[in-house]
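Fold this sequence, please.
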Amino acid sequence: MQVTILGTGAYGIALALMFHENKTNQITMWTKFEEEAKDLNKYRENKKVLPGVKIPKEIKFSNDIDESITTADIIVFAVPAHALDDVAFLMRGMVKPTQHLLVASKGIESGTCLFPTDIIAKHIKSRNIGVISGPSFAIDMAAGVPIGLTIATKSIATKRATIQSLQNRYLRLIPTTDVIGTQICGSIKNVIAIAAGMLAGMKLPESTQAMFITESLHCIKNLIHALGGNKRTILSYAGFGDLLLTCTSVKSRNYRYGYMIGAGEDKKKIKEYSDNTTVEGLYTLTSIMQLLNHKKVSIPMIDLIYNIIVYGEDPKTLTDFLTKED
């Protein structure tokens, strides 16, 4: 199959390597920056985001979006959530009904409170759209270790095309039709990871972390139900799997940000970190609060995290929350 990946960041490259495992795939990666496309074609490495990871010569790079998607069977959105609207706008009128759209971006758009598939749907009409999500740091995927992902789609054709082209000896895909629930899990886990980092920064042990993750599962399950998804999605790779990874690993930028808050590090240092690092949970936190307020839904754990981040409440209120009686 011909596969085009929109975005040349760490996760986009990792996905390209997974598609490349199936030698019948022809892969193009698109970036809007002409100089970046030239450098990647020449040096076969993105030294900024995945240093040391060599990109096979069969993978092509382009900054021409029309050329990149015209003949593609599968188009993968692997740009940051805040860039999705601009990229989808560029593609208006270009996408054919037979092409499959896969969304790897996670988050909720600020202001509109739209999920990635909704953002794309504003500009592109397609019944063949799906979401891939799950516990998978780019560096781990690029290393060729066993990884499990959820493929969420209501299109049987998209499910089959994705599994046929992407599943390989390293990567296992489990299908579901719960597109909204899968996107909720992929978005909210970054917010939860900030709080998990706070607990670690306060030097609380693994037992408390386990308690927090368990309570978080109930929180996310209630959120999925409130927004029209399937509560069982919390038990998928996109749910518990991604939550567990993001809430327990120092590789997570969200976890690291929360750790700095919990450890009481200097506020200027914390702001410098968030200004120079993509902390997805911060982007999502405001959006999820707007969405919950619009839906008139209250999720106490999300309210608490919001109050700590936005209003500067003491992170120790997290422990009070965990032990309070219902």
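The first strand starts at residue 2 and ends at 6. The first helix runs from residue 10 to 20.
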